[in-house]
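Researcher: Quick sanity check before group meeting.
Model: Go ahead. Protein one:
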Amino acid sequence: MNQYLLLMVITVLSVISCADNRGEDFRNESPVNPGGFPDGDVPQMIVLGSDDNTNVEGMNWILDFMASRSHKDGTSLRMSFYSNSRSSADWHLPENHKLVEAHKRAYNLGHELGNHTSNHAFCVYGQTGEGQIRITQDSIFRIVDEFSHDLIHLVGMNPKHIVGFRTPYLAWSDSVFYVINNKGFWYDCSITESRLGPGRYIWPFTMDYGASGTIGSWWTENHGTSVGRHPGLWQLPCYSFQAPDSLFAYMDSLAGRTHNGLITGLDYNMWSAPRSGWLLNKDQSLAVLKHTLKLNLEGNRTPMTIGMHSQYYADDFNGFGFQNIPSAADRRAVVEEFIDYALQFDDVWFVTGAQVIHYMRNPVEKEYYNPDNYLFTK
């Protein structure tokens, strides 16, 4: 039995609880949507998840652009911001007042503000046997609590709405999952998912039995970061993009080997230099995003996640590390043109990570889907 069919069998055993108690949620890993609907009847959700968000211009750009667009059904576009409050832009300093105001604006517009720790610390730094450094579990509790405190007291968030988490640098460890599960977060979105590819990926799942994609992975094997059981904690994978065939020769030349065209699903990994990235230009980046969406729409319609960093799109950001797309205007154009492309489809919606988890608990077919039904009520 191949891997795809095996996961389809497993899904029959999956049970989704719609209870308010997050700890009662359970779903096995499966490529089958939570409602068991025909693939073509599933709403295609796209999650723009922006990390750090240390620049006012970058945040206001994406907020303004999304506010200027709407879905075919007239509903608003929304996204998730996973920010830091005590790193390169300290929210407690007077000069960063406008950055706090930008986060308030995002929250009041219905976007999600998630936790990315207060100081953007490496939870795991360095490979095993190379002087690896790990911060303690108590330290993880502290930097998670600090940021949640700042969201509540500086932004004015309802603490019940702080439900999403992403580990800085995607450098997760089992201690991270223990902490955020203990703190009552609904979901994490730190584990990359590249198996099977877009259109065949597993849907979000709860980590009652860990995360099978981490077993034997490069990160786990080189950093000693096996994952235990974390009942009720959802994993919204950081899904990899799939480059079209036309880019394979280019990617092979960069990698020095035959490559499968998969790209870790963040802007940084499209634009930075190898080994982290692929030095894509504007047209190549758009081709990758459009092709990934095409495969999703033709396949099982797992949520498409796009990791970004809003500060990269500000004119004063130093983009020289992105050799083939050094212009902030070109970087903004990638996102803007992709959003406009996706909005041509009747059954595509830009949503938050929290809305995805709401949907996992209460799935409906696309003809009945209204993203506003999956928002928090204030």
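Researcher: Fine. The other one?
Model: Protein two, sequence then structure:
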Amino acid sequence: MLLKFSNKWMNHKKDSNNNFVEYREEKPHYNFLAKTWVEFTKNSSIHAVHYLTSETVNAIGKFFWFCVIVIGFVGMVYCCILLSARFRSNLTATVFETTNYPITEIPFPQITLCNNNHINYNRTEEAVAKFVGNATQKQKEFFVNFTHVLQNMMYGSNDEFEPVLDEGYDGFMENIKISDIILFMMHDCKEFLIECTWRDKTVNCCDIFSLQVTEYSYGFSFNSYSNVGTQFVNRSNLFPWRIANTGKKSALTVLTALHLETKVERNTGIDKPGIIPFVQHPQTHPNTGLFISVNTNAALIIKPTVFSTSDDVSRLHPADRQCYYSHEASKLKGLSINNLPYMRANCISACRHNHMMKFCNCSFAFLFFADAENPECTVSQLRCLAKVNDILNMIKPKEKNPYFDESEQGITCDCLPECNRIEYEVTMEPIYDDEPISEGMVKIDVHYGSKTMIKYRTDVLYSWVDLMVGFGGILGLFFGCSLLSGVEIFFYCTIGLFHEYKRSKEGLVKIIRAKFPFIN
């Protein structure tokens, strides 16, 4: 190694032979950074970088390879940016996981039945005596006309109260709960449900059906977690129930009696005799039903579909994946009802209930629920509900949509579906038996149409693993390097650099001895 000496006289001393000597400081101009860089380029697995310091490549060649490396670096960065943008876009894809998912793996749906004519007018005199026995004759007539509206009461029909209230209401019913009137005058379980079979075995209808609150007033539910009755609700590990067979009488059959002689003809268009069946998840508040007219024998054929998501989907924001997990929704207030878990149907019912409270500060116990914080609407508050009835019936999208008039008032329900859910699609078909059903009856046979179903799975198109694989492919394409090349860079930037720095530090000051040329 060449040494360059300074001209500085350090000291004059005599040695053991009494000779004068000169001590000079040795300062090797040793560039440890450059040395580390040279060592790295010679030994690195990254393509083409060794040309930058190779002694066999002239300056033009080094410049050429420098330009190639710069262009490759720019291309690598550009492709990485594109890949990162695709990863951040949080794209998802839904695919068939299986088309043979067995029906035994999911619960049989909740079956809720409502008589479209809720009121048994054979109980009118008893109801008058019970609720308004001390009222005037005019008030009693008002009470009877009021019960006529309750016959077909459902969510969104509040405007039907307005003509009755216009007849003159003096406040005499303010302490009477509307739900109590309906419960007293409705057809009870034994009157409404005549014959039932479950798994082709005859059972007592009132043992398997419980009183239920729906958006079509009170009904009776089978296989439901949500009910207000206590007759038969199994809370064992075997509930909700399941079936393994398909076809006629494989699941639930019910014969209902509508008691046409007890209804009042109102000529409103919604007072047609029939039943409203709901086929929904056992943990759902019944809010979407069909209509089956009187004297009908029908089959309700269920086609379930299962939707699941991968673990990678859970890291996405709900707005990106367009669904909620149950643990997320439980932290958000007002997205469910009656202490039921989050489901889209429950969220919509909760949204409707919340807007009723917002506009009129009251609720209906026979449609949703009522408690101290959500008091039941009194008769006088029905005017408020009648005025906002059109608003409550109009659900508008959360974001602006050119197909919806922004000036039209409505409610907005931010209700995403569940990420992991079961959907029950129902098809109604007539049943032609040799023995027709009796007059004023409706018979339904609810069963699955197939022993297997489709299960969908939603996954992210680009997960963290896909991102790393993509980056690795880009690095390999432009520089032919891998993860170990990154380890090399880390090694030379830390251990290698420290090692060269230490070597240069040790050789920085060195004392040598030399005789003066003029001393003997």
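Researcher: One line on it for the slide.
Model: The chain is about 30% helix and 20% strand.
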